[in-house]
Write a structure and sequence with these properties.
Elements lengths: L2 E7 L4 H9 L5 E7 L5 H6 L7 E4 L13 H11 L3 H6 L15 H22 L3 E5 L4 H12 L3 E6 L6 E5 L21 H21 L4 H14 L3 H4 L9 H25 L9 E5 L6 H4 L8 H11 L5 E5 L12 H8 L4 E4 L5 H7 L2 E4 L4 H6 L5 E3 L11 E3 L6 H8 L6 H13 L2 E2 L2 H12 L12 H10 L1 H15 L4
Parallel strand pairs: 1-2, 1-4, 2-3, 4-5, 7-8, 7-10, 8-9, 10-11, 11-12
Antiparallel strand pairs: 5-6, 6-13
Amino acid sequence: MVKKVLIWINIDINQFCISNYLQNISELELFAIIDTNKGKKFYQEQNIVKFKKKWFFRDYISKKHTKPDLEYLSGFEKKYKINLWNIVYSDVIFNEYNNYYKFEENEILSVLEQMCKCYEKIINEVNPQYLMIKVTDACNTRLLQLMCSSLGIKVLSQGSPRFGYRCTFSSDNDVIEEMNYINQDNHNKKNLGELQKYIKGHAEEDRSWGTEFRTSKFQWLKAGIKYLLLTLDISYRNYYWNFGRTPFKAIKTEILFYIKKKSRKKFLDQNISKTIPNKKFIYFPLQLEPERTLLVPAPYFSNQLEVIKKCAKSIPVDYILVVKEHPMQKLRGWRDKKFYKEILAMPNVILIHPDVSNEEMINKTDLVITITGTSGLEAAFQLKPSIVLANVSYQHLPSVHRIKNIEELPKRIDEFLNVKVSIDDLNNYTNYVLKNSFQFDETALLMQAFNAFHYKGFLFDTEISPSIMKKFIGKNKVFHEALALQLQNIILPKN
């Protein structure tokens, strides 16, 4: 029986490259939804991947807004059991992170209505068994993922289990199915040092990302010129994601970004401690913002300043709360100085400089509190308990407590300060992750794509050269074949 696979392709050209190998499997039919502006011509004319049919998403999203059909949207929510406003608030374009445009309610609802009708049309026509999609980090991709899940269409989303150089395909990157890893066969037990290598591998990936992503001033200049030309394109500006983007606003935003970034870094260097306090403390590492890992799985805890205040109110009197800035926040221009000043003003809170080692912070703390960050998992592998505020892939570890009600935080802090981490639990978890993931250097592949097509990460909506694409596919054959093989094993399991 032929399996129909619906594939979402946007700026991540690796989805297209994987499709190049999947098309050779006779039991599969491939369909594509393509979300791109400058790359549209390539996908219209290319003959590398022969999709059964393809749709260009942006053709269905018009700027000509009409009064939204609330009856349709309400019926849609009930039909698919989806909260649309929850999705909206998880999208950086529709909220306070957007420096170019302030959406009105009817504009948002009109865009949503167009998305919903577009997806319903495509799904009804294709009737796919699978949706292949990269990590869902925006309203359009999140909506499609949730629709498919509601309809029983298996979602294959590529993500990382936060173990170094490993990858998974799952329906939801934010969770691991309930307790499946507990009581695994521990015939292959590892000592603590061996277990910690997996966590350190993930940290190495993060450091590699930080040293390679957006570091070339020459590529920044080239991308800037291309971006200014792009903002002159009416078809580009008419897509909801790009509302309000004019050359003047682009230049103004970029200048202000670098002025604020420099000023904020100076404030951090002059006012924030680089010394870990020599007293009992609970550790709260700030998460990168804006970022999918905060907005999507934790929509009710996206205001980190308020979360810090709640934690500060909840800790025992003989403890302090230590907050550390995320070193990669530099990519976002750091945070407003007002944010840092409010933390500095809290009597039982200390703010630590981003240059301080996260590993050292965890080593010296008694408890980690994080919203969805990897620090909670790193804490377990340093034999420290943690509390998380939203769904994370490691939340079923006995040394990790997922808060369901923020009012229980003081009680849970008291309890988990005394929790001991079991090596057996870490082995159970590790064995499960290793069994349900595969070796893969995703960062290396992404960086190659950024270098080949996206000016080293400075500009993503770019024209695609057929010759460069063919060269890229040839160069990265091993990567894409490995991913295609994993997908084949899921879609067409061997008896």
